[in-house]
Specification:
Elements lengths: L1 H18 L19 E4 L4 E6 L6 E7 L3 E2 L12 E4 L3 E6 L3 E6 L8 E9 L2 E9 L3
Parallel strand pairs: 1-9
Antiparallel strand pairs: 2-7, 3-4, 3-8, 5-6, 6-7, 8-9
Amino acid sequence: MKRFIHVTFLLFMILSTISCDKSTIDGEWDDNIHLSEKNITISAEATTVLITTEGSSWWIAGILFYDDSDYDISDTDTTQEDFVIATEDFSIERKNAKEIHVSMTQNNTGSERTLTVSLKAGNYFDGFKVHQSAD
């Protein structure tokens, strides 16, 4: 009986060691958004760009624009498959869960403007930047 307990314990220890995979860190997620583009440069003219995703379970975590203004998006449910966030300088529209249409008005500021959009899906964070040239 003692031998059976020792063999069982040894087998348990071997199986426990083999089953442990330390190649990934707890909480680390693979890219489940798959953005088509992450850095886009456009002219100073009013322009609309299309960014696609392979994943559809993402939402917008935050938006920064130009002079690091952080836009309040709490009134918009960005987990929905269709929504629009519109300001006087830009708009972001999500269509059919996998398309993001970003429109920027003409840049008359004399300096480059950057729109940074942070996305989240589960514990995975990603995002894209739209750089608009100066006029």
